[in-house]
Amino acid sequence: MVEKRIQPLARDAMAYVLAGGRGSRLKELTDRRAKPAVYFGGKTRIIDFALSNALNSGIRRIGVATQYKAHSLIRHMQRGWNFLRPERNESFDILPASQRVSETQWYEGTADAVYQNIDIIEPYGPEYMVILAGDHIYKMDYEWMLQQHVDSGADVTIGCLEVPRMEAVGFGVMHVDEKDQIIDFVEKPADPPGIPGNPDFALASMGIYVFHTKFLIDCLRRDAADPNSSRDFGKDIIPDIVKNGKAIAHRFTQSCVRSDFEREAYWRDVGTVDAYWQANIDLTAVVPELDIYDKSWPIWTYAEITPPAKFVHDDEDRRGSAVSSVVAGDCIISGATLSNSLLFTGVRANSYSKLEGAVVLPSVKIGRRAQLKNVVIDHGVTIPEGLVVGEDPELDGKRFRRTENGICLITQTMIDKLDI
């Protein structure tokens, strides 16, 4: 690993977060919001991880490109990310698709989402661009990646995960030489190329790219002039650089931020209901794989002013209690029992109800005697008294969105259709 410079490169960089994705595999969770705006971890949104990584890395210029159902995402960023100040040479730009280049053209791909805002980027004069996906859960110091980019003389440096080779079939995979220079980029290969010296593993793209700004803008302008391009980093820009320039792989393990409690480099794509449920439930472990309590690398977010959580009643069968659970502020656990569950802000769990393996989004009301197991409950849902979920797979599948792993996603529309 290279030594950190005294003068961080991050101060001369701009982070550009691509946050326009729909995230259709999250089903009804993205009916009203983009995937980066989906709640995660009790009080944050998914996008807060990429944004916090940029801020904690020392980057003070940030742009976020939005597109699909962006209102809740934009509102969240306006409330929680409005502290960067232009008088300190800081900036935070929200960049919705606004037909800036053409009156008929929205963002056509990830590269186009940057190209259409070149006139906003250039006046800031960043020397480096850090292109980020806004829909993954991880902690990473981008300064290390910037330093590798400069020291290697790369045209592009690509953040990569080391994954078991046959698990890489759903990723863009880097075929590298012994010096981690990328000699081929293969999108979702049936037979992924292994890593030199470690053939059972492959290098999968994280969707994180570092460029010198001038080089990137030149690439984007050439791409925009190509009528055959799909305007996408993974499909067009990166393969062209791999073929005609110098592309270097940056391994996530070199820049992953870990507290004393984190044993492995943690990165998750919470793009399915099962993965989303699991990553949230993982946080309820005694020593979770992701340490969100690490004050040296805080996850910034919109910090609502809320009263503390409250647990009331202490009768034998009516005791407000929680075991191996995460409970956010403004929750009232009134004679309810929680185990291995995660509750976001403002949840009300009423007497005799039991929750096990429940991920409960903000402002949910859980009626008396409800029995809920292995569920994700969307924002603002009112669970009727006595509802049982998690005991009868066939009935659950008829009423709710039930995954192959038996996780039930519950929305208010589904509740309203129940014949109770």
Automatic annotation (TrEMBL):
Keyword Zinc: no
PROSITE patterns tied to this protein: ADP_GLC_PYROPHOSPH_1, ADP_GLC_PYROPHOSPH_2, ADP_GLC_PYROPHOSPH_3
The entry's keywords: ATP-binding, Carbohydrate metabolism, Glycogen biosynthesis, Glycogen metabolism, Nucleotide-binding, Nucleotidyltransferase, Transferase
SUPFAM superfamilies attached to this UniProt entry: Nucleotide-diphospho-sugar transferases, Trimeric LpxA-like enzymes
Pfam families noted in UniProt: Hexapep_GlmU, NTP_transferase
EC number: 2.7.7.27
Taxonomic superkingdom: Bacteria
InterPro entries with a match to the protein in the record: ADP-Glc_PPase (IPR011831), ADP_Glu_pyroP_CS (IPR005836), GlgC_bac (IPR023049), GlmU/GlgC-like_hexapep (IPR056818), NTP_transferase_dom (IPR005835), Nucleotide-diphossugar_trans (IPR029044), Trimer_LpxA-like_sf (IPR011004)
GO terms (BP aspect): glycogen biosynthetic process
Reactions performed catalytically: alpha-D-glucose 1-phosphate + ATP + H(+) = ADP-alpha-D-glucose + diphosphate
CDD domains: ADP_Glucose_PP, LbH_G1P_AT_C
Gene3D superfamilies: Hexapeptide repeat proteins, Spore Coat Polysaccharide Biosynthesis Protein SpsA, Chain A
Pathway: Glycan biosynthesis; glycogen biosynthesis
GO MF assignments: ATP binding; glucose-1-phosphate adenylyltransferase activity
Start and end residues of each Glucose-1-phosphate adenylyltransferase/Bifunctional protein GlmU-like C-terminal hexapeptide domain: 307-410
Keyword flag Metal-binding: no
Family to which this protein belongs: Belongs to the bacterial/plant glucose-1-phosphate adenylyltransferase family.
Subunit record text: Homotetramer.
Identification of the protein by name: Glucose-1-phosphate adenylyltransferase
Species per Swiss-Prot/TrEMBL record: Rhizobium jaguaris
Gene name of the record: glgC
